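Quick start: what a row looks like.
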Amino acid sequence: MCCPKRFIVVGLGFVGLLISIGYRAVFAMVMVDVTKTPATTGKCPVNESDSTRYLSLTGKVSVRFSQTMNTAYFVGSLLTQAPGGYLATRFSPSRICGISILLTSVLMLTLPWAIPFNKWLTMAIRFVQGIVEGASVPALNGVISAWAPRSEKARMITISYSGAYLSPTVAFVVTGSASCYISWHASLFIYGGCGVLWSLAWFLFIYDTPASHPGLKEREILLFQEEGPGHRGGSRLIASGIPWRSILTSLPMYAVIVGSFCRNWIFSLILTELPQYFHDVFSLSIDHIGWMTGVPEVFMTLVTIIGGVVVDKLIKANRCGITTTVGRKLAQCIGFGIEAICLFVLATRGDSPEDRTLVFILLCVGVGFSGLAISGYQVNPLDLAPQYSSILTGLSRCGALGAILSTATAAAIRDGERVKNWQTIFWIAGAIHMAGVVFYGIFARGTRQPWAQVKESKGLINPVEGHSEGSENGVYDDYKDRIYSRSVDYGSTRNIEEDTMDKDTIFSKSTGNVVLSSSDYDEGPDWFHLTI
């Protein structure tokens, strides 16, 4: 039996984030390895006696400078978050996502030569990687939004995004083991090569929308008839009508941005600074660091996936007053609240080698429960305005400023009395997380916003007349020409209790299963206009 096409979108989205987000952890681990001091509790087969597999930049590149390289990446990424969301709305989001990850993968393959050659060149490559990779997540969100039926919206995006949160586990373990047993740069080649291969598969199998896919099967077509796809994909029409002023003055949108800021602060801390923490405080070997930093992300991935399904079911059942708004707030506040508490406790530990086990448990609990928040702020743009999900995701990804400030703060504070300074870093992180819980709990919303109730005057619906009644392929071709979108703006349907517009629900038909071009919006005898 052929796999449903939307499952392929989710699966490749998962793998894409697993690889591309993993680049950050791979680089951080490699730099910990090549700048480490020799005083570690473990030994690796790859050591100073093998110059072809071992690299030491001690005395040439400081730990503080290597952390600044991480900051350079996040600065570059911040510059293209919002523009990337616009490009994904204006053009093909699947192509924007594929090109973004392909380019950063190629740059990853240049690092094995750049790192020993020149530290400033390495920093420049990391900066450019951030720039080209910044558009990938907003574009991916646009693709998933177009392919997500209402009943599967949260689980599709949480399963896809779980690739991002599982990525540190894989990256830490692979890099730690590869650096210890193969060579210092083996993981750079492994990840860069996998990224290139993934990009080719993405270009080959992924289409922007269900309507543009030539191989959609009858059962999946019936699902989209029943619930409607997320939206119609990138177009000039949608891009020209973006309500920028309303979006930029929306408190629910700022709640999403604050959630993203807090998540980026902690995630970058775990991704790029936690390996250095275990080296500084507990003097662990690189392969041991890989396991200690990777396992907590496994718990987060499990909670992310399970949480997405549970939150969907609670909202769909609408019991105990759990509307979309309440469901999003519960997921966000429980997830980030527990993580903040664990960070506060973590800030009191590290003075004794025996604290290593407790620190590991705190990380597993805190990082694990934070996966619930993905069903909060991360899914929220699809609630507020599905047709602008790429734009909203791009704006929310400006929360990458949290990653910049987090890595810069860690680099500035770390020097000196290392244990106490690391405790200060965790106190700051916990306080920021708790502040984010309060802000999101007050201002977040799970309903479609008034500025997202788009009323178009033309070009929204393909002609319902003139399509072929006969088909040599039987019922499949008949259904292929009848994919309906239940929404005034290509958006997903909403709960009746949350959206009074449901009484105006309409059905639009796409002909020939093709992507509409700008010429398709021209007026003509076979087109009718729609205004609600």
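That is the whole record. The first helix runs from residue 5 to 20. Residues 456-532 have pLDDT under 50 and may be disordered.
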